[in-house]
Design brief:
By secondary structure, the protein is α/β, with parallel strands linked by helices. It is built from 6 helices and 8 strands. An 8-stranded mixed sheet has the order 1-8-7-3-4-5-6-2.
Length: 194
């Protein structure tokens, strides 16, 4: 209601401009309205903030903080993502469940893609959570972009007795569905085959 009244007063162009102002600015707009004045400067400020919000909604942050982003130990990654040569067919990660396997990759990036899982294939995904657990019954191995030894995928892979390497950084961007890969869950190495 207040936003609508401030549109009538000439301060805002849209009632929901009020959501782009802080309390003191809204108070100033109310006081100006009581004096019979408009505050179009506050409307312009709200419009600018709306535009900024829309621009920020289009930004996509990286999945992880790059190791070179900070030398501070609380920000630097530990045990969640390995640095790998983008031209090498070998990726390193955290070995979390022992064993070796070579099989086609089932590349699954989100739950709507669960039906792409093929029995006997290696589950390749960004990460897992409890919703992903049914896929492990069909997987012969697991490889993830991020993760650590106590992550969900690591624990479930050990429970199912399948080799797993997590924290490879970008396996989901390097492998194609059905591509043959090898997982060495003892050494933490994943090899991409042509």
């Amino acid at each position: 209601e207040l936003g609508r009244r401030l549109v009538e007063a000439g301060t805002f162009t849209q009632p929901d401009d009020i959501y782009y102002c802080v309390t003191d600015e809204i108070r100033e707009a109310i006081e100006a309205r009581a004096r019979g004045e408009a505050r179009p400067d506050l409307g312009a400020l709200a419009a600018g903030r709306r535009e900024l919000r829309e621009a920020r909604k289009r930004l996509h942050p990286p999945g992880t903080v790059p190791p070179e982003a900070s030398e501070h130990p609380s920000i630097a990654f530990k045990e969640t993502q390995a640095r790998n040569d983008p031209n090498s067919p070998t990726l390193r990660g955290v070995p979390v469940s022992p064993g070796t396997v070579t099989a086609p990759a089932s590349l699954i990036k989100s739950p709507p893609e669960f039906d792409r899982m093929r029995s006997g294939s290696i589950l390749v995904c960004p990460m897992t959570n409890p919703a992903w657990t049914p896929l492990f019954a069909h997987a012969s191995g697991l490889v993830t972009d991020i993760g650590g030894i106590l992550g969900h995928g690591s624990i479930v892979a050990r429970e199912y007795g399948i080799p797993a390497v997590v924290g490879t950084g970008n396996i989901t961007q390097r492998v194609t569905p059905g591509q043959e890969i090898s997982v060495d869950g003892d050494a933490g190495i994943v090899t991409l085959h042509d």
